[in-house]
Predict the 3D structure of the following.
Amino acid sequence: MNTRRYIFQSLWYYRFAYLGVFLGAVLGAMVLLGALFAGSSVDESLKQIGANRIGKTTHLVTGGDRFFRQALAEDLSEKAAVEVAPILFAKGVASVRQTTVNQVQLIGVTDAFWNFAPEPPDISLNSKDNEVAINSLLADRLSLKLGDTVIVRFQKPGVVAGNAPVAGGGNSLESLRATVARVVDDASFGRFGLETTQVPQASIFLPISILQEAFEFPGRANLLLINGTAAGSEIEAALNDVAQLADYQLTLDWLELASEWEVKSDRVFIDADIGSALLHNFTSARPVTSYLVNDIKLGESVTPYSIGTALDPTSVSFLPDDLAENEIVLNDWTAEDLSAAAGDAVSLTYFQTAESGVLEEESADFVVRSIVPLEGLAGDRAWMPNFPGISEAEVPSDWDAGLPLDLERVRDKDDEYWETHRGTPKVYLSIDAGKRIWATQWGDYTALRLALPKIDESVIIEKMLSVLSPDMNQLLVQDFAEQAKTAASSAVDFGGLFVGMSFFLILAALGLVAMLFQFCLLQRNRESALLSSLGVRGKQLMRWRLGEAFVILIVGSLVGLPLAVLYTKQILRFLEGIWAGQTSASTFVFYADSTTIVIGISVFLILSMLSLWL
């Protein structure tokens, strides 16, 4: 007897009896394949989200809370042979009428930014008209369309962190009114973000010049996007070669009165790593720390709100070379104000940042070593750095230092001193004393003075740059593409997860198939007995019956395949609602490859045949 013919004729003859087995096979295949498809779809969706988030970006140069030259992008692009786009990145609030969205990404961009999009759009924003682009998510949340007006509010960053003792009052809330010129979808870089999250971020894309003007940081950026084949180490080497003093937020100036060079930081305090590197490599370098002193007290007499300076006493002629750590020197104006003389005990009060990050007023006691006239270097205004909110004030009563100062205590004579001498220090300490009481987490020194002749400053700058590295100013190269790949490669096997969640349904389908198959065999007992009497062995008969089941299972799997696609799409639609629920844009996309289909059907056939055999 022809086996194939017998199997197909039996299937046709017993087609109604096998209908239950067929439907069970369809159900089991649909659930198993659907679970595998759902896992593949989630994995693929995460990869697509990551790809849309980073676009063509391979690496980043981040500045943390630091700001570097916008022109660094062009210099780095030329040196490393990569494509670079500068960004000024911040967070803010967007509002339209009574609707507000918090934690909005404010992304100051140039036209080069859009070249990094997965599908580069043709976008050019007019800064004069305050034109901005918004992503689809923000457009949905605020019901915005082209031509609408959006109010953007943000905190203007200070030169140093807000809890620094001399942060200034620059962290004020600013706002601007902008016109929506473009709504950007995911493929056009609307999903751009720095956070390794799959949740979309509301974003506003502004011309970089608008944010620079609002922040009062002209020509500055805090992020670089890089697209190229260069490795991270090659980009780091190129960055080190093209970085300038401005990228370290340093300035080098010649002081005529002191006849020496001075290095200062835009951030008031020179970073510890930068200061150590310069002090180690410039033997003539002398550190200086200037600080705001709340009170200089002698008994009941008090001089409020003064500048104190700590320096190496051997570097100037007006201080005793052996000035001890517990001694200070007053200028004659302050000595007269306090009726102080050499040997008197005075105390200084000042603000410091505690370990908790809260500003606390502290004090230190000293002995007056000597009194110096307010002239020459002792009367030099250059000792005081550019304290934000203080240096530019006309009088002390106008200070906006970002500190809890009681400016009502400022006297007329204090205003007169400021008008005549500005920030000339009223008290001098040794550098060791200054470091002991005024050292901060942002740095120990506010300046370095270099006792070098007035030569070509480019020679000094070249040497300075040779001992500095960008990481000293938190300029770090990050492998953005690898980070996105890692974020998309979830530790969770979503295919296995969905199969596990469907385990009992799959098990029930297999049990149903096995039970109905056994029921069919019982119906054919007389046929089996007849075949046995004709000499057909039991093993041969069992192979025929299993062959019939195998054909049914294959057909059921093929029928279950399109149903599995529909089943998976319903799962994804359900996940869409509980995962994102924030935008009309689709988060999950259906994905299934031939490998998944073959594996799914093969596994189902093996499991089903085993259940029938057992």
The chain has a mean pLDDT of 87. The radius of gyration is 37 Å.
